[in-house]
Amino acid sequence: MKWIPRWVWLTLGFGTVVLGVGVTAAATEVPYYAFEPGPVYEIDELISVPDGDPLNGETFMLTVILHEVNALEAGLSYLREEVVLVKKERVRPTGVTPEELSLRGIQAMEESKSLAVYVALTQLGHDLEIEGEGVFVGGVLEGTGAMGVLETGDVIKEINGVETAINADAIGVISSYEVGDVLEIKLLRGDSDELITVQVELVQHTTFADRPMVGFLATTYNWNFIDPIGIDIDTSNVGGPSAGLMYTLTLVDLLNEDDILGGRAVAGTGTIDSAGNVGPIGGIQQKIFAAVAEGADIIFVPDGNWDEAVEVDPGTVELVRVETLQDALDYLAGSGA
Hints:
By secondary structure, the protein is an alpha+beta fold.
């Protein structure tokens, strides 16, 4: 029998061990989701505006791919700077199925599109009346003050004496307080038309450091307003509220004879509320990586995400910090557009 060198046996043995570990890791579930850069969409291709002026430039919607990982994928993620792991309960509360999470993302996107149309038309001088019947509790996060106090299906009507007709109203009220403060919430539950009063202590936000939260998944209950123009935004199955700013900015340009973009490729992210305020979102670093790869000239970053955003090297792409839609418009108007 031909003699086989010892190093061959050692190599085969080591390879077998590595293969075995890899197979085991691939079959081992871990309590994490991976955030990584998702597809980038040209927004004007998604929007239908009757008699709108074409853009002189491009606006991009940035997305994040979010998926559960096994132990092998979790380990490999550390080799990719554009991927980050997030604990599962911070993304999908206990008791919420992946299908329910996806549905709530689609609902949040629908609300975001409606808000974008409302804010854009208001910015351009239209007198619109926004309507909503409260804030719907779509799920409650364990380990928060809401656990055992709020229930899925509740409709919040008032927080600390402030009417909350839409989700953005609730976010505004909650954001004005500090972690540890106790809020009085009035809500409807079940089929009863009598308001229930509960108290909830604010905890630190699971995604945004030093920001307070109650601890529930929220959407506007029966959101509506009359669009006098007939704008349509087709986002298919993309979910979440984070494109609000960029939808609004694009609509203002399409409906305005002024050249807002000045031929530039503008990316950005951030929620929008009925007053034009830009709110923080998840996955900011992954969205910056995606925008840079797409060739953006400018990336608008919500003020609440700024500290995390500047940890990423954007190369020659300019990061611009914004708190409102007007901040973004002022920047574009004052930087050569």
